[in-house]
Design goal:
The protein has about 325 residues and is α/β, with parallel strands linked by helices. The chain is built from 10 helices and 13 strands. A hairpin with a 2-residue loop joins strand 6 and strand 7.
Length: about 325
């Protein structure tokens, strides 16, 4: 297939995205951005004084994956936890105003809404402040989660799991998701967390970044090697993960080195990054898993889906904040 024919095919398949019904499961967060300017250093400590000029809020964590998906399909729903607090009110209001089905979000006084506050001055992050209280699911929360998953998964075309290691997902929940996805023949993609060490055997595709890949493989992180195909440490980590998880597809995101795709018995395939300017990497992985999943559901090959995800990530890192990518922006990469 010629490059022009390939581009035309992928543009056509992007047009299939709005028909897909996607369920996102994972740790929900609220991203708070405080914007300001710096003109002096504090007399109290050697730190900048930020004069605040504005504030903005966005769905974060797994909610940001849903937000990215919603740019491409109106049939996006999310399951997770939020506190019965003002931050939870704001998060749910943002999801609903975006057209995301948040009926699967459990609100509880036993849970505090996770908030990531980033203070930005001169287009640079000065500091990040995290508000979180990690706790395992209570028996009643797990019972409702099981009911919600049993009801929603059969109706979905695909499932995205975004594990941020904040307590929603443990091995029992992971096993339940995998079992339901396999029972109903659903595409299941997973963005794992390096510290939860959950076994996702049976998932369609798993997308760790380089640090997550080494951590999940139980290996010490080694410096990157260029090209990635010659990175012995990374190759060993990938071999262990393929044996551990047995996914159909493993997509390892490598930051400025792009992505490395493992599919079946095929040799690793390297996809160089398309990012031209990098302003903020916040949420780039969320964009990647969202577009990669939609590509698989629309009928692309794993290599084509990874290409689309790489293009979308290249756009996302060129924006400040946890930004999303639009269908028009993704199509424009083929111009």
């Amino acid at each position: 297939m010629t490059p022009d024919a390939q581009a035309a095919r992928l543009r056509t398949l992007i047009g299939e995205f709005p028909r897909k019904q996607i369920l996102v499961i994972g740790d929900l967060m609220l991203d708070e951005f405080i914007w300001g300017k710096v003109s002096r250093i504090s007399p109290e400590a050697p730190v900048p004084v930020v004069d605040v000029t504005g504030e903005s809020y966005y769905p974060g964590g797994a909610a940001n994956v849903a937000r990215n998906l919603r740019e491409f399909t109106p049939h996006t729903s999310v399951i997770g936890l939020a506190g019965a607090d003002a931050y939870g009110d704001r998060l749910c209001a943002l999801l609903q105003s975006s057209g995301i089905d948040a009926s699967g979000v459990q609100r509880s006084a036993e849970s505090a809404t996770i908030v990531k506050t980033r203070i930005i001055a001169r287009n640079q992050q000065v500091v990040r402040v995290d508000r979180e209280r990690q706790a395992p699911l209570t028996p009643s929360q797990f019972d409702r989660l099981r009911r919600d998953l049993s009801e929603v998964i059969p109706r979905a075309d695909g499932i995205v799991v975004a594990d941020y290691g904040k307590g929603l997902l443990d091995q029992q929940v992971a096993g339940l998701i995998v079992a339901l996805a396999r029972e109903h023949c659903k595409v299941l993609t997973v963005d794992p967390h390096p510290h939860t060490s959950l076994n996702w055997r049976g998932a369609t595709a798993i997308k760790p970044n380089r640090i997550e890949a080494f951590s999940a493989a139980g290996m010490r992180l080694t410096p990157p090697v260029d090209p990635p195909q010659c990175d012995v440490g990374l190759s060993q980590a990938i071999e262990r993960l393929m044996r551990l998880w047995e996914p159909q597809t493993l997509l390892v995101t490598l930051g400025e080195q792009g992505m490395l795709l493992l599919n079946g018995d095929a040799a690793p395939f390297h996809i160089p990054t398309r990012a031209q300017e990098v302003f903020d990497v916040s949420g780039a992985g969320d964009t990647a898993i969202a577009v990669f999943t939609l590509g698989l559901l629309a009928g692309t090959s794993p290599r084509e889906a990874a290409d689309l995800a790489n293009r979308a990530s290249g756009i996302a890192v060129g924006k400040l904040g946890t930004a999303t990518v639009t269908p028009a922006e993704l199509r424009a990469t083929f111009a």
